[in-house]
Structure formats: C-alpha cells, structure tokens
C-alpha cells in the first residue's frame, strides 16, 4: 500500500496561529448547533485517493464535515464541506498548491 506521504517541517506554531483556529472553531460551533454538520480543529485527518490513485492523508487547520458516517476514529474517508488553513511562511506554498488541489 503506497501512502505517498509528504512530511512538512512545521518549526512550531506561533500562539497566534492557534488563536485563529480556536476562534474560528468557537464561532462556527455555535452556528452549527442544530445542524448535522460539525466543525473540527486541526486534529482530524482526511484520507482519500488523489487523481492518480495514490492514498493521501490531509490534516487541515480546521474543517466542517456533514457526513459523520464516513468517520473512523479521528479520520474521515471523504472530503470535508469546508477547509480552513492558517498560512505560515513554512507551509504557505504547500497549502496553496498541492494541499488545495487534493481538497
């Protein structure tokens, strides 16, 4: 099984990076209260195949998913409804290119 994983050096997030994620999740969580959708922070994985059939695992900074039946542990097997990435100098190129294309 070829997972074709890419390791990105994440030097360590700045507190401001985490603050943006936490504020977004808190604001959206309240808005989705009576919905079948859920908002997740950066501890959720999405596992799927790219257009060449390679297995990929992507972890967005925040996401909204409405298909909770596709969840296995902390991994979903479908694309989320919404993805948020907080850009940083070390990850911006990957987030704007390969990662965006996968979603």
UniProtKB/TrEMBL annotation:
Species whose genome carries this gene: Anaerobutyricum hallii DSM 3353
Name of this protein: Putative restriction endonuclease domain-containing protein
Pfam families: Uma2 (PF05685)
Putative restriction endonuclease domain span: 7-102
Gene3D superfamilies per UniProt: tt1808, chain A (3.90.1570.10)
InterPro entries xrefs: Nuclease_put_TT1808 (IPR012296), Restrct_endonuc-II-like (IPR011335), Uma2 (IPR008538)
Domain of life: Bacteria
């Amino acid at each position: 099984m070829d997972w074709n994983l890419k390791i990105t050096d994440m030097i360590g997030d700045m507190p401001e990076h985490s603050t943006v994620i936490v504020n977004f999740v808190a604001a959206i969580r309240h808005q989705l209260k009576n919905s079948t959708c859920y908002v997740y922070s950066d501890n959720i994985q999405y596992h799927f195949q790219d257009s060449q059939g390679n297995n990929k695992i992507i972890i967005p900074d925040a996401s909204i998913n409405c298909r909770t039946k596709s969840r296995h542990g902390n991994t979903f097997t479908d694309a989320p409804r919404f993805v948020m990435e907080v850009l940083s100098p070390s990850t911006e190129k990957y987030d704007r290119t390969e990662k965006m294309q996968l979603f």
